Each structure stands twice: as C-alpha cells, then as structure tokens.
Amino acid sequence: MAHEEPINYYEYLRPNKKYPNVWCSGCGIGVVMGSLIRAIDRIGLDKNDVAVVSGIGCTGRMPVYMDFNTMHTTHGRALAFATGLKISRPKLHVIVVMGDGDAMAIGGNHFLHACRRNIDMTAIVVNNWIYGMTGGQYSPTTPLNARATTAPYGNVEQAMPICEVAAAAGASYVARTTVYHATEMDKFLEAAIRKHGFSVVETVSYCHTTFGRLNKRGGVVDMMRWLKDNSVGQIAAQKLDEEEKAAKIVRGVVCDVEKPEYLDLYQQVIDRAMEAK
Amino acid sequence: MDIRFIQGNDAIAWGALAAGCRFFGGYPITPSTEVAELMARELPRHGGKFIQMEDEIASLAAVIGASVGGLKSMTATSGPGFSLMQEHIGYAAMTEVPCVIVNVQRLGPSTGQPTAASQGDVMQARWGTHGDHPIIALCPYTVKQCFDLTVAAFNMSEKYRTPVILLTDEVIGHMREKFEMPDFATVERVERPHIPVPHEWYRPYGDTPSDVPPMANFGDGYRYHITGLFHDDKGYPTQRLDEVDPWIDRVHRKIERNLEDILLWDEDEVEDANTVVVTYGASVRSARHAVKLARAHRAKVGLIAIKTIWPFPVEAVERATAHARRVVVPEMNLGQLALEVERVVGRRKVTRVNIANGEMVTPQMILDAIEGK
Hints:
The structure holds 2 protein chains of 2 kinds. Helices cover 38% and strands 18% of the residues of chain A. Chain A is α/β, with parallel strands linked by helices. Chain A has an 8-stranded mixed β-sheet, with helices on both faces. Chain A has a two-stranded antiparallel sheet with strand order 5-6. In chain A, helix 6 (182-194) links the parallel strand 7 (173-178) and strand 8 (199-204). In chain A, helix 1 (29-43) packs across helix 6 (182-194) and helix 4 crosses helix 5 (162-169). Chain B is α/β, with parallel strands linked by helices. Chain B has 2 domains: 2-186, Rossmann fold (3-Layer(aba) Sandwich), CATH 3.40.50.970; 264-370, 3-Layer(aba) Sandwich (Rossmann fold), CATH 3.40.50. Helix content of chain B is 38%, strand content 23%. Chain B is built from 13 helices and 16 strands. In chain B, strands 2, 3, 4, 5, 6, 7, 8 and 14 form an 8-stranded mixed β-sheet that branches. Chain B has a 5-stranded mixed β-sheet with strand order 11-13-12-15-16, sandwiched between helices. Chain B has a two-stranded antiparallel ribbon with strand order 1-9. Chain B is globular and about 70 Å long. The termini of chain B are far apart. The chains are: A alpha/beta, B alpha/beta. Chain A binds chain B through residues 14, 16-18, 47-49, 51, 53, 63-64, 67-74, 77, 80-89, 91-92, 109-110, 112-113, 266, 269-270, 272-274, 277, and chain B through 23, 25, 41, 44-45, 49, 51, 53-55, 57-59, 61-71, 73, 87-88, 91, 217-221, 223-229, 234, 236-237.
C-alpha cells in the first residue's frame, strides 16, 4: 500500500476563528467536516477555488471553521444561493452542507430542483433525525414512533428517504454512509466532488444530546455503535429480506450516472443566442 | 438615434443591461414577467446568464449568490413574490451584498388582482423584512425613468453594498412611451472596487472612512465568511455588544451620510405654492395633470414627485411645503406614504387621496382635494 502523507488539518482551518466550535462534544458533524477536508485535500483543490455554503442549524455552522470561501445562508435555501454562486463563478467547486431539517423540510423544494437541474455542485446532508439546534423537534427523517420534543407521544410521520428522493429527482451521483464509516465517507465525498453534475452524499449521524436522550439511546459511543451494528453495505443488504432491510441503514452508492450538466447546457443557450443576434 | 416605443418593464431590463447586470434569477409573476422574458433573451447575448428558479425565495437567494460570485444581479417580481423575498432582502442587508429587486406592484393583499395596479407595497418595501435594516427604494414614473432608475439602483447597490428595490407599479410597468435607447458605453456605471490589501489583511466588514468596506468576490483569493448572523469585521458570528452595536450603526450611517447622492425627486412650481401635491409612481401622472388644471385657474399649486421613496426625502418635502397650507398626498393605497408626509409636515395639513381597487387616482380626485372639496 502506498504511503500517504498525513494530512495537515490546520491548513484548512481558520486560525483567527474563535474556538471551541459550537457543537456538543462528540457530535458527528465534526466527523463529516474532517472527512470533507480529507476529500478536498486528496483531490488537491486550491482553497481559493472551493466555496462551502450552508443553511441554518448545527450543520449550518460548519463552513465558518474552514478556510475556504464560506457562506452561511438562510434556513433551507443554501442550494439556491449556491446555484447563483456556481453560475456566476463556474470555476468554484461549490459544496453545500445541510442538516436533515434544513435540506428536506424547509429546503425540500430547493433540494428537488437542484437535483433536477443537475448543476455541478455537491450537497452533503448530515442526517441526525432531529432538529438539534432548536432543542430536539422531529424532522422529516425522524423514524416512526421516535420521541422528539414536539413528538412527546411518538412521531406519527413517515421518514423521508433522502438518497432515494435525490436519485428520483435527477441527481447524477447519490451515496449514503454513516459517521462511523469515516473512510467510506472520504471515498464517497471525493467521488461526489469529482462528479461532473449534481451529487448528494447523505451522512447518517446522531444527536446524542436530544434524540439520544429522548429515545434512551445512550451517549456518543452507544450511538456510534448503533450505527455500526445497524447499517449494512449494499452486498450484505441483498441477502436480507425487505423487512430486515427496512430496519437497516443501507450504505453505498445509490446512483452514479452520466447526464448533461446544467452549465454545459446553458453554454448552448449562449451559443444559440449569439447566433440569433 | 435608437428610438423605440417600449413599456416600463422593458426599459427596466435594458437599464439593467446598461448598468452591467449579468445575472437574473426570477420566477414568473404578473405584472413583472416582461422583465424576466427580456433578460432571458438578452443576457446570454451580453455575456450574462439567466435562470428561472423554483420560487421567489430561491430567486433572490440565487441573485445574492451570483453577486457574491462577482456578477451584478437582479430579480423582478410583484406582490406575492415580493412577500416571499422579504427573507432575503434582510439577508442581503445583513451581509451587505449588492443586488437589485424590482417590484412591479399589483393589487393586494394576497393574490389580489394580478393585472390591476396598486401602490400598496410602500411600507413593505421599507419594513417587510424583520429587524432594523437600511434600505433604498426607487420609484419611476416614466418609461425613461424605469431605465435611469434601474441604472441608479445598480450603482447605489454597489456603492453602498445594499439591496436596492425598484418599486414600480403595473401602470408604469405596462405603459408604453417613446424612449431613446442610449449608447450603453455612455451610461455611468459603478464597479466593485479593487481590494487594496492581501488576503490576510482583508476585513470584509471592517471600518473604513466611507463606512462601506470593499467587497471581495468569492474565487478572487479573499477567502472570507458571509453570514446572516451578527458578525464581526472578519464576518464571523458574534454576540459581543462592542461588535454588534458598531455594525448596526455603520450600516445605517453608510446610507444616512450619503442622502445627497441617494435622494432623488422632481419639483414642479413649488416656489410660490400654498398647496403642494406630494406623490410618486403612477400617481405622478394624474397629479401633474391636476396641477396643470389648477394652475390654469390661477391656483398656487406645486408638485413633488418623489423618486427615492426610501429613505424618505424629509428635507426636500419640508422645504417645498414650508409655506403650504395644504399638502395633498394621492396614492393607490389607503394611505402609506401619507404617514411619512404627515410625520414631516404635520397631520392637519395633509389631505389624503386614496384608491385601492386597482384603478388609478384620477386628476379630478386630486383637483378636488387641491380645492378642498
């Protein structure tokens, strides 16, 4: 195996930003941030050519710590801001980080249309099944019957499958993993950023502070272990019946297809407009 | 000479192109759609890009994103869409990202009457988004002004790093007039300033003598943070009172100290006037006619046609009405700008002339008010 240089994380963090970060100790969002940095480092992107855009919530706070062009926007709308940014500056590698409430509830419409347009950006959805920053309300991915502060008698809404929605809506690359599977995450994020088209990586995380407490799931280590024990790769998933599979988080690449990218197509608009001039 | 017979909405789009607008993000809505249609056709011919977003919230988000990437950017909408855009008008004000928002006012509230005219969004343009924030709103009353004030809107938004609202209405938007298209090369444009310091020294929200810190575009090597949270000079979130207070002071000061440049209005015969009509937008058309009729009867009547509606031109109105016994404020709403005029000249002097059913204020209604009928 080729020897890899150990990555210097400090190179990608802002030295003049006040620390510690905003997250609870043990939060899975830090794992995603570390993985994103490794993926960017491995591809070798120039920091000036990377923009990280986020919405509101715990995950929304990720960009401020990283030494890229960073934009913390409004709740649910990060993809719409990012779309304008990418069109304006095509050379930027635009990466959007969102939580499950941010991306799928208030931002659901923008999520669908970003997938449909297939503009060359990467969306990372950190799915911890709950609104963490506001204190543990149920989200579009909260499992049925789970407790939340706004579901004190159990959640009666069906959870939304992020990756399946993204694939159906037209994203070019869609993958799912968990914060326990950090090396797999590195691989998926690298592939997603390299993909010429709209890519989505769902990183299943946990919120021990709210979800874990309300649902008696224990602490960080317990919830990490739960992710390990309750997720399977796609090959292992094939051996399970539908009921068993539904109870598991299936990790892997959900779709990886080649289709025309938005800005490439818009170049045709420019060409036709110039011809008609 | 390039003489055309065009509507206000078209003039807005041409004005935007002349001002250097190179990105438009919008969503179809009557009666503003012609702006989007013309931009969709012309932007790709002018080295720009057009996108139709999934809603008006996304439209203004994309506009702000594109502006951060370095393109002058605009959207156009009407009442219901303007309501949806309020969230991001606040974001643009907070993050000091230049952008232009066109609101071709239609009759509201709610879906109201999409094809009927109104001036019902005057207060919304000022206070529609939450929290204290600076804003500039411009109101044209001719097709030529649609062009000129769109150029002014872009220039002010760049000069003061602020969202600027072009608050027009269905009458002006769809009204056709003779228009001489200027050579775009002769149109005065304000461009984003060069950043005089290297990356490590750059303060995106730092104190500067002008109170407007120069804005760096993403991708130009100035890696900085933008957030809708209160932030320090580096753009990082803060709750420190010694950072929050100076910010809120500075963003208001940057507008207030430049009122001479920002405030635009026209005056007709106010020197000897004992009655002054104060109005804006489509209502200026009726008011001009009413003033002419009244002058024909030797009445000493003047007119102020306000073009910068926010910030409200307090001193101009004060000066022009100093000797007036009566101040008439016609509007296509139930009295919105009248509140500002009353604040300046006193409630007892003001006669409101209102209509809020989709029709215009008629010259006769204004004439009656001038004559105290």
